[in-house]
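Annotators were shown the component list below and the corresponding predicted structure, then asked to write short factual statements about the assembly.
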Amino acid sequence: MLTRRRFLQSTVLATVGLVIEFRLEHRPATAADAVLQPNAFVRIAPDNTVTIISKHIEMGEGTYTGLATILAEELDADWSQIRVESAPADAERYNNLAFGPVQGTGGSSAMANSWDQLRRAGATARAMLVEAAAREWGVPASEITVERGVVSHAPSGRRATFGELASKAAALTPPAQVTLKDPKDFKLVGTRLPRLDGRTKTDGTAQYTMDFSLPGMLTAVIARPPRFGATVKSFDAVAARRVKGVTHVVQVPSGVAVVATGFWAARKGRDALRVTWDESRAERRGTDELLATYRTLAGQPGRAVRRDGDADAVLARAARVVEAVYEFPYLAHAPMEPLDAVVRIGSDGCDLWAGSQIQTIDQHVVAQVLGLAPNKVRVHTLLAGGSFGRRGTPDGDVAGEAAAIAKAIGGDKPVKLVWTREDDIQGGKYRPLYVHRLRGGLDAQGEIVGWENRIVGQSIAAGTAFEAMLVKDGVDVTSVEGAANVPYAIPNVTVELHTTKVGVPVHFWRSVGSTHTAYATETFLDELAHAAGKDPLAVRRALLAQKPRHLGALNLAAERARWGDPLPAGRARGIAVHESFNSVVAEVAEVSLRPDGMPKVERVVCAVDCGTAINPDVVRAQLEGGIGYGLAAALWSEITLVDGRVQQRNFDRYRPLRINEMPAIDVHIVPSGAAPTGVGEPGTPPIAPAVANALFHLNGQRVRRLPFARLAAAGTRTS
Amino acid sequence: MVTIRINGTAQSVDVDGDVPLLWVLRDELRLTGTKYGCGVAQCGACTVHIDGRAARSCVAPAAAVAGREVVTIEGVAGDVARAVQDAWRRLDVAQCGYCQSGQIMSAIALLSEIRRPSDADIDTAMGGNVCRCATYARIRAAIHDAAQAIGR
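Structure shown to annotators:
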């Protein structure tokens, strides 16, 4: 990780085009210390290490490995010499090109927005090494080759490592133009390189925010309101302060923080704390009331998002009309590492250590809390133990809370804020509750002639820092993505939206709008196919004739799943295809029934078109994981509220997927020479509808309210 | 003051007996490879070996492990541990990696007891370890892979 001084040094030197850095700062520079850093993304040291600076967080999706592969490819580095470190927060140098002037990771965009940038960064460094060798050896640069970290001149037999050339290359001016490789010459991209974090994540040494500590650091937990929107009226900290190890009890905007020498004391202190809450402005509605309101709205016209032809008129005279209402619960992200952040206030600003998904927002929020200029907040991005969207908030909630606590206790001690698992499950920022009402019309030949989709739910972006980017003409694009662009060639399509206002905080959740739109559209299309007496794959193929990427993924999945071949008794297949984050994924689920009525997913065949697969094994892992994450939600997950109170607290009732429920998954990658598109999220949307479509063939039921757990033996669950 | 043998060394820590072993390891001894995930023995991220058996350290009071042999991810050794960690790396099981210490501790305990576990054995032994990245298919494959490596 860059030290602050080195970072400032880099910033200053970067303005003259080439950064020369010194490995040991307190030692005078010598030629041997010179490091080649032709741009913000790579550093080549005399010890022959190549350090790639990642502007994106590693939260499990393999970003470090993928970004390093892109750069190492054009550099012709050897994989064994590659290291990765996280970039300091910097909206100018390290912004996500898909986001604008914001550094952040989301929308499955890490590879897509870095592809060209890091290829150029690697090619630039390579060109400088070649030029340095050419000058040193007095040979034409055109005769020099580079392979696996070694620069060679065949005619003279001379060769040198990157490390040996680094200091000489550092004295050169980076070329203005570089030539990128022809993809047919790729040696690393497209191969199965081992993940760079595989070792530390198997020996206990990988460092997450939860593991980070500083001398004198205290640990804080926050007593949070029992209902969303409630605030602290008063609190009695006498008993809490008596708990051994508790050092401070302080009020912060989100509740009352109990600060102690360690986590256990802080938690015991919080248990002993008595808080009286002002609930006059709290949200008191429960899931049942919200669903009743949403169902009513779904029966009324909403704001038009798409209108092709006249679906209403066509549906009025269709030979057959099918109608369905789908209901989706609030969902918590529940990453394995509970939310956390470490803040240290110093005389020259503040340091934040966090698994930050949007570093420059967290930086600004902390700066605001502490009354500092944003550049006085140094963000150190650590590995995150999962996120699924939760660590990338428009209000920098976790970092801001940590800063508020550090300030409230006097600013002289570093503080680690920990959300307990209960805080995480009950703390909001959920995938919103949604209701979809679909109507579809068939003509006498069974062709789909009209499609109407009315969507009801909260906007994720409205009223947040994301509003300008994501809300267009009053429509939050994340509310309708996957539905407004339903890919099927249907002549009359209407998509409408009702945006509701509820005091339950909502947020992006792995694949965002597609978490519900894919289910509604893909199960409904299946239902229409069934009503027409047609094969659901054949119907999709016919309606996707003009969508080659959809068709490619669909056909590959169907072929590998042997769609149409007979299955053993008690098994059925279901299929779904969906585009999200510019990738298209088709999944075929093979399902049986458990004695309690729940589906058991035996096998999933998945096909993905994600453009160039930078690391096919990481792509497969992301699709496997996306399927497992989506399957957990489909089978088990829901956050329910009664009288405004969240009913789930931990993994006992917010049930995750367990190993016995994980299907065998075969992932197939559609060959493509296009630039890479997303893989972190696109695996998630198709699994629930694929399972639902299979389940129908087993029990004749169309599941229209998620999760499927509601199917399990009657009497064991209530709403 | 509680004395626990951790990774082969007797460690005396000044904590009340009700403090869970997890927080003794993490906050007192800075052995942070053992993770906090749920605090109520629902996720397995805190799995360690107590007297050779997989146990959830988040619900094991320090007093209850006094004088017993605790092994954490930092202290695992031997053929089985090596085979498991190697298999995990060969198959690139980890994604976010946060649960993997616990997964590996459960897998080592399983393979120490059953050299050739069936899928059902794996379901039983690993059912308490949650992975939100859903790396389960690779965990299963890695356990089978490690079993084969040990047998060779």
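Statements collected:
1. Confidence is low (pLDDT under 50) at residues 1-29, 713-719 of chain A.
2. Chain A has three domains: 4-185, 209-280+339-418, 287-330+429-711.
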